[in-house]
Structure formats: C-alpha cells, structure tokens
Amino acid sequence: MPAQGQTRDASIWLFAFGYFACYAPYSALTKALTKGWWPGMEHAVTGFQLLPATVLSTTVGMIAFLTAMRWWRYAGRGPLGLPCPGRWTFLSGLCTAGVIGTTTLAYTFDGVSIVFVMLLMRGGVLVLAPIVDAVSKRHVRWFSWAGLVLSLGALVVAFSEDAAWNISAICAADVLLYLACYFFRFRFMSKLAKSEDANANKRFFVEEQMVASPALLLMLAIGAAIGQGEQLGELRYGFTAFFTEQPIVLEALLVGLLSQGTGIFGSLIFLDKRENTYCIPVNRSSSVLAGVLASYSLMVFPAQRAPSSFELLGAGLIIGAILFLSIPPMLAKRTAPAASPAAARAR
Questions:
Q1: Backbone angles phi and psi of 77, in degrees to 5
Q2: Is residue 263 in a domain?
Q3: Domain-located, residue 47
Q4: Are 295 and 306 in contact (CB under 8 A)?
Q5: For the whole prediction, is pTM greater than 0.70?
Q6: Mean pLDDT per 10-residue run, the chain (347 residues)?
C-alpha cells in the first residue's frame, strides 16, 4: 500500500510537468498567430477563424491518444457494443468542450496579456475549488487552504495594475463561461470519479474526452453553416478558406495538439482522489508558470514587453502555493515507513 500511495503522490506532479510543457507553447503560439507575429503571416487571424483547425486537430489527437493507450475498453457500451458515455459524463464532456473553446479564445483578445488573463481564469477556478469540495462533502486539509490563499493573493496582485482593467466585454464573457463550465465539470467529477478505483477514474476520463472535442467541433460546424454575423462568418472562413489561404495551417493544427495535451494532463491531475482544493491549485500553478514562460518567449517578436512586476509577483505567490501544497504531504510520507512494519504485523 505505501508504494501505491507514493506512486500516486508522485504522479500528480509528473502530470503537472506535462501540463506545463504543453501549455507554454500552446498559449504562446495562439497569441502569436492571432496577432500576426508568426513568420510568413501577412495579417493576423481572429480566434474564431483559428478555432476550427485547432479543434479538428484536438479531436484527432484525442482519438489517437485513447487508441494508443488502449483505453477505449474502459468506456461504457452502447448499441453494437461501441464505446458510449453515460448521462453525467456526457454533460461533463459538454462542459469540457466549453473549456476548450473559451481557453483558446482567451489568448486572442486585445488589451490583455497571457499572464493576466491566465491569472484571471485560474484565480476564478481556485475560488470554485473549496465551494465544490464543500458541496461534495470532501475534507479540505490545512495546507490546501494555504495554497488557495496564496493563489488568490496572486489574483489580487494582478488586478492591482491599472492596465489590468482594460478588459473587453467579450473577454469578460469568455472568462465567465469558462468558470461556469468548470464549476459543473468539477461537480460531475467529484460525484463520479476522484476515487480509489483507478478504472472508475479512467472510465470518466475516456467518456468525457470522447464527448468534449467532437461536441465542440460539431457546435462550431453548426455555427459556420449558419454563417450570419461577424463571429459565425469567421467560423465559416475557418472551416473553408483558412486551409487554402493561410500559411499557418500546420501551426494551427499544432495548437490543437498542444491543447489536447493540456486536456489530457490537466484531467489526470483533476481526477486524483484528493480534494479539489489540493488538485486544482496544482493544475492552476502549472499553467500560470507556463504563462510566464510563454510571455517571455514572445519577446522574440519586435516591440513585445516582458511580464510586468505585478504579473511576476503574482507568479511568485503561485510558487509559494506550490510549496504549501507539496511540502506537507512529503513530510507526512517520511513518517509512513516507521508505521508500516507494525501495520504489516497487525495484518
């Protein structure tokens, strides 16, 4: 049992590293493409023009991952014995579809930096964590509360900068939809997964993933077919002329694959059986640090600034949150070997 517990403790941080490694290039590349900074671009593309290609790639990446891992067998079965989600995993998958779309769009708006919008979205989710735990009657340990307070402090620091208030109505709406999707997703996850049964967690993961990106792709296709208005017209362009007129098709597909990578590693973090007030800051901390790295990487393009002192101070508070989340469990494990022989004799 101790070995299994230690593996689980280590795995969440390995997933956090994978999340970080995907998120940094994902956010930086999305920003560069929608600002027209990428080499070979004559003009920028909008977030809605970019979405169809990225979501198509995300869907292919999802199918390839589940097939390579041979995880389709964990899904429930429907007609003809084909993999089929349950009612609640289907709804959770729809929430995840909303998260995928709003996340990509968040890095395409003018007037907000990668780090600021990331702190805004991540801080909002951190607020949701103890609420979901309280509703789900899941115990919240003291160091999880400490990590939460430090993470929220990072959000307060970000809003202390005057430029932080230059946020458009559509960007604010995007963030609110993102948070709403996450709230309901966490409720479904706490009800159906985050258990000792690894197979139950994998079943939730597979059924949610098989719904999320295909559902979003279908919704985008319906919007493109309607094609009325500025945003829906841009979606139609993204499904059609984008693939023949734009020199960044491969880059857009790469954004989608990186997005799927963040979805895989992020979901595996969330599915850890421990309380949401522990797992969510682990996930959010990884993405905020990735955002700082992405912002610095964008300095290779002309006239781009480094993250502000407010943003860096916020990132510093996030590092403090990581320490509070990781050190107490590590210290607790040191006392476990001393108790394990007695426990073994008792058995």
A1: -115, 140
A2: yes
A3: yes
A4: yes
A5: yes
A6: 46 89 96 94 94 97 96 92 93 96 92 80 76 74 76 74 72 93 88 76 93 97 93 96 96 97 91 75 82 91 81 78 68 57 46
- The rounded distance, in Å, linking the Cα atoms of 203 and 180 is 23
Bridge partners (DSSP) of residue 83 are: 77
Closest to 132 in 3D by CA, of 319, 281, 10, 323: 281
Which of 81, 52, 95, 65 has its CA nearest to residue 208? 95
Number of residues assigned to the chain: 347
Q: How many CB atoms lie within 10 A of CB 197?
A: 10
**Contact 271/220 with Cβ under 8 angstroms?**
no
Which residue reads 């990590």 in tokens?
A: 147
Tokens 């007695």 correspond to what residue?
342
CA 161 remoteness from chain centre = 25
Single out the residue of 4, 53, 3 nearest to residue 29, CA to CA.
53
Any bridge partners for residue 77, and if so which? 83
Q: Tell me the two tokens of residue 93.
A: 């998958």
Question: How do residues 168-192 score in pLDDT, each as one tens digit?
Answer: 889 889 999 999 999 999 888 877 7
Domain range spanning residue 313? 2-334
Mean pLDDT (the chain) is 84
Residue 320 lies in a domain: yes
Provide the CB-side half-sphere exposure for 26 (13 A, CA): 27
- Please, what's the largest Cα pairwise distance for the chain? 72
The residues near 85 (Cβ < 8 Å, ≥ 6 apart) are 75, 76, 93, 207, 208, 210, 211
In a domain, 119, yes or no: yes
Count how many domains the chain has: 1
Q: What is the per-residue pLDDT across 266-297, written as a single tens digit (0 to 9) for each? A: 998 888 777 777 787 788 778 888 988 999 99
